[in-house]
Design goal:
single chain; alpha+beta; Trna Endonuclease, Chain: A, domain 1; 3-stranded mixed sheet; two-stranded antiparallel ribbon; 5 strands; 48% helix; globular
């Protein structure tokens, strides 16, 4: 699950439908890097276990709406949406400074990207009006990272949902870290 609240809702449903199984289920944070390493290890051992990313329904609906607004077929959207900002005049993708380099943030939540764009608009209103939100799917980005040698891909940074970051902070505070 991309969002903790969706994982919690799944466990709540499981408690009703299969209480015995639910008793052994716990929601824990796992980074995408860890999921990738586990999936590679499982594949390398010849096991047939697949991971499925479960996006939030609201984010899927936002992706479909964005696609339809841009004249594309929204009903065909499959996967976990990632939202990024692009200049309308082929200026490329909006970047942020991370350490010494410019990176292209891809957000799991459209609202988190919109918050960044709102701050950007107050700082640079003359440019912000030409920025539009695009949507791609996480699975396609992962495949591209595995198979393509495009320098663009090295600039991508995935921005987790705010509620996931808050959940991890709470866990760290609770464990004394």
């Amino acid at each position: 699950f991309i969002n903790k609240s969706d994982a919690d809702a799944f466990v709540d449903r499981l408690r009703t439908e299969n209480p015995d199984l639910a008793a052994s289920v716990k929601v824990v944070p796992v980074s995408l890097g860890e999921v990738y390493q586990m999936s590679q290890s499982i594949r390398d051992n010849g096991e047939n276990l697949r991971f499925t990313f479960v996006p939030g329904q609201q984010q899927v609906e936002s992706a479909v709406t964005l696609l339809e607004q841009s004249g594309k077929e929204g009903n065909n959207f499959n996967g976990t949406p990632l939202f990024l900002a692009k200049g309308q005049d082929e200026d490329g993708y909006l970047t942020i400074q991370r350490g010494e380099q410019q990176v292209i943030p891809m957000f799991f939540n459209k609202e988190d990207l919109q918050g960044m764009l709102d701050r950007f608009q107050s700082q640079q209103p003359e440019i912000a009006g030409s920025v539009e939100i695009e949507v791609v799917n996480l699975e396609g980005v992962i495949e591209a990272l595995q198979t393509d040698d495009d320098p663009f891909l090295t600039k991508i940074v995935l921005i987790p949902p705010r509620d996931s970051v808050e959940f991890i902070r709470q866990l760290q505070q609770g464990s004394g870290n």
